[in-house]
Specification:
Helix content: 55-70%
Number of domains: 2
Oligomer: single chain
Largest sheet: 6 strands, mixed
Structural class: alpha/beta
Number of helices: 6
Radius of gyration: 56 Å
Shape: rod-shaped
Length: 294
């Protein structure tokens, strides 16, 4: 789109109007000279024609009189009309200039209002973006807190998948235990027990154990509480393999799980699953989402 230089255009219009005024003045002057010439031309002819008519009737002097009067009056009338038309045209240009000035003023005001509206819109967009970022930050913070405190649970699909992998060890004995004061560990132990029951393991109700520490003792005497899931096997190969599958499945689901390096000395093949306190940070699917890409 061509950019219009409004000041230059206005100056060009003023220059043309000045030139037109000059030409109109010259036209009036020229017409006035014509009228003056006609008056001078017929100044003597008309009186002579009148004298001729007085002496004897003739068309010629009459035509001279009538023609001279008509030509002079016509040119004088043209001069008069031109004079008043010039004044009207000058007034018309002035009115057009006033109208043009009003239109320019209103256009400038409209442009200014549009610029202000755009600025307000930009400010509103920036404010909306700022509020959206605050809301997103708050949502992210809330999600992070929820992930850090959410209870460990196995979904129905995870229980079915775990049962499918452990059916090859059907009939294996398992003992699950948790701290009696830990409701979160109780619910997680129940989920694992249901999965093992679907796999046809010999599973009983998770055992609530009361764990107490010696005290009072100096600070730092007692070790830190165990966290996560600890899997213990007896010395036989079947128990070892079953324990490794359980630990691997739980880790695959995003839960902290380890296998105790020392075996239980009981003679019967048994897997022991200790559901300790919930580890710090995300667990389950939340932990998998935050895990670095391999």
């Amino acid at each position: 789109m061509t950019q219009i230089d409004l000041p230059s255009l206005q100056q060009a219009i003023r220059d043309l109007e000045n030139s037109l005024d000059t030409l109109e003045a010259w036209l009036l002057a020229a017409t006035g000279l014509v009228v003056l010439g006609l008056v001078l031309e017929y100044w003597h002819e008309i009186p002579e024609a009148i004298e001729s008519l007085k002496k004897a009737w003739s068309w010629r002097p009459l035509l001279v009189i009538v023609g001279g009067v008509l030509i002079t009056l016509g040119v004088a009338g043209e001069l008069t009309v031109q004079f008043f038309a010039s004044r009207k045209e000058t007034n018309l240009r002035k009115k057009n200039d006033e109208l043009f000035s009003i239109v320019n003023s209103e256009t400038a005001q409209a442009l200014e209002r549009a610029a202000q509206a755009n600025e307000r819109a930009s400010q509103n967009e920036r404010e909306a973006a700022r509020l959206s970022k605050i809301a997103e930050d708050e949502r992210s913070a809330r999600v992070k807190i929820e992930e850090n405190v959410a209870w460990r649970r196995l979904t129905r699909d995870q229980q079915a998948k775990m049962a499918s992998w452990l059916k090859s060890f059907s009939g294996e004995s398992v003992l699950l235990q948790y701290n009696v004061n830990d409701l979160e560990a109780d619910s997680f132990a129940s989920d694992i027990a249901l999965a093992l029951q679907q796999a046809k393991w010999r599973v009983s109700e998770p055992l609530a154990v009361l764990q107490m520490r010696e005290g009072p003792v100096p600070l730092g005497t007692n070790p830190r509480l165990e966290r996560g899931v600890i899997v213990i096997s007896t010395r036989d190969q079947r128990s070892h393999e079953a324990s490794d599958v359980i630990r691997g499945m739980l880790e695959g689901f995003g839960f902290d799980a380890t296998r105790q390096p020392t075996d239980d000395t009981r003679p019967n093949s048994t897997v022991f699953i200790l559901i300790e306190h919930r580890p710090e940070g995300p667990q389950g699917e939340a932990k998998l989402r935050h895990a670095p890409a391999p």
